[in-house]
Design brief:
There is one protein chain. The chain is an alpha/beta fold and 459 residues long. It is built from 14 helices and 11 strands. The strands form 3 sheets. It has a 5-stranded mixed beta sheet, sandwiched between helices. Helix 5 packs across helix 10. It is globular.
């Protein structure tokens, strides 16, 4: 049976048994020959299975493959070991940013409150030698605000520009990669240009924070802790690289599960770790309690954009959003009516089957939606394959249910109410409509031609 997103005539999906060829592709582990041995040399290399993401073998070049497989715990400890050496010229400031959908995993897995989990995770990382631990919620604030503004602008131009609507969310790297490399021009012009929270966090750490600390961006090694493997591929995008400093905005992505592997290697339990307050980007100020955005299992782009558009375009204050489930719980619709007419129609499409159905409607010209929040993982970001999995790589439904309860209980903060964000727009980004906002918070998505150098990995 071929995978749902496969466009090849013959199936090359990796069989899930111990006798098949390793997907870690030994030939790509270019640093194995001279890698320093330490107490973590037994940790596994990064592996990305087709079942973990939407990026199939034909989507990844040889260079990307080599760099993806280097994004593992060994890379983190390579930097930690460099920082112990006498040659300070090679030292790096090690910063780790944690995605909000990862925290419920640690809370549920170790039976902690989400605030305790955040502080203990921070304490653990700092015990390893990490200098700063950040929460990426502030980056999601920027991403949502920019997405809201872009949708309103697209809606107002819908009669003048053919590709103004629908607008697709741009936060999920699995969806973006699939759109650029398989769907191509059919959808790329419809994708919101706002960067994802991960990459905006990269801009904040390597841009704003580096300037505050009088550091060159290449002197910071920035790690993201995320719920899914596709984030590793996103970090490699050429548009998230600064040639002047030879520096990626995000240097390494580790999944929540990979962090737990480090804990297990060190025989450390989260409950035994000293609590340390999470850092902020603003000097000595520490983060308070964990907050989230609207949305049950993700950063809530649909809810925030819907409420903002209802107010800006039609003067309607929407307090609560009512979802209507269509074919399944991962494909839901939200509508706004005014004077008996449906003026806004949004949808959430999670999982590849729903993405396929959505694209089919677009091809047939029967697409009714103004905006779609698209996520590659069924169940949303909490169900990322880098955390909510059993040892045999199946969804851990009991743990996922706990994670959803933890996430739903986190207080909601509107991005508009974050005073730090408003101040940064003025002081760092030179105003909300500035050229710097476009350069720092936005990117461009376009069709990518497949190349002959794609890896022939037998998934």
């Amino acid at each position: 049976m071929k995978c749902e997103n496969c466009t090849k005539k013959e199936c090359s999906k990796k069989q899930k048994n111990d006798d098949t060829q390793s997907t870690s592709v030994d030939a790509l582990s270019s640093n194995d020959g001279f890698e320093e041995k330490n107490e973590f040399h037994t940790l596994a290399n990064a592996k990305i299975l087709l079942s973990d993401c939407l990026a199939c073998d034909n989507c990844m070049t040889s260079e990307e493959g080599a760099r993806v497989f280097q994004q593992n715990q060994k890379e983190l400890f390579r930097i930690l070991n460099l920082n112990k050496k006498c040659d300070t010229s090679k030292h790096k400031v090690l910063a780790v940013s944690i995605c909000p959908q990862s925290l419920p995993y640690f809370a549920a897995k170790f039976n902690l409150s989400v605030n305790d989990a955040a502080k203990r995770l921070c304490g653990f990382l700092k015990s390893l030698g990490v200098h700063y631990v950040f929460d990426t919620t502030i980056a999601a604030d920027f991403s949502i605000l920019e997405s809201q503004r872009e949708f309103v602008q697209r809606y107002q131009r819908r009669n003048q520009e053919e590709h103004a609507l629908p607008m697709f969310a741009s936060a999920c790297p699995g969806w973006i990669r699939y759109a650029e490399r398989v769907l191509t021009n059919l959808v790329t012009s419809h994708i919101c240009t706002a960067k994802s929270p991960q990459q905006i966090m990269g801009s904040l750490v390597k841009g704003y924070f580096a300037r505050q600390q009088n550091l060159s961006p290449d002197k910071i090694f920035h790690v993201i802790v995320a719920p899914c493997y596709d984030k590793k591929l996103e970090a490699l995008r050429e548009d998230f690289y600064t040639a002047l400093y030879n520096s990626q905005e995000v240097d390494c992505v580790l999944t929540s599960g990979e962090i737990v592997q480090i804990m297990e290697q060190k025989n450390v339990s989260m409950k035994d770790v000293t609590e340390v307050a999470v850092d902020s980007l603003f000097g000595e100020i520490k983060e308070g309690d964990v907050v989230r955005h609207d949305g049950k299992r993700s950063d809530g782009y649909l809810e925030h954009i819907f409420k903002h558009a209802a107010k800006e375009l039609f003067g309607i204050d929407v307090k609560e959003i009512t979802y209507k489930a269509l074919k399944n719980k991962d494909f839901q619709e939200v509508t706004l009516e005014k004077d008996g007419e449906t003026v806004l129609r949004f949808a959430a499409a999670y999982g590849f089957r729903n993405i396929q159905n959505m694209v089919l409607k677009l091809k047939k010209g029967k697409f009714l939606y103004h905006f779609v929040e698209v996520l590659a993982c069924p169940g949303g970001c909490l169900n990322g394959k880098g955390q909510a999995q059993t040892e045999d790589r199946k969804p851990d439904k009991a743990l996922l249910n706990q994670m959803e309860e933890v996430y739903a209980a986190i207080p909601v903060r509107l991005p508009e109410t974050n005073m730090h964000v408003q101040k940064m727009y003025q002081d760092w980004l030179e105003g909300m409509d500035s050229k710097k906002v476009q350069e720092t918070l936005h990117t461009k998505y376009s069709a990518v031609n497949q190349t002959a150098s794609s890896l022939d990995i037998k998934w």
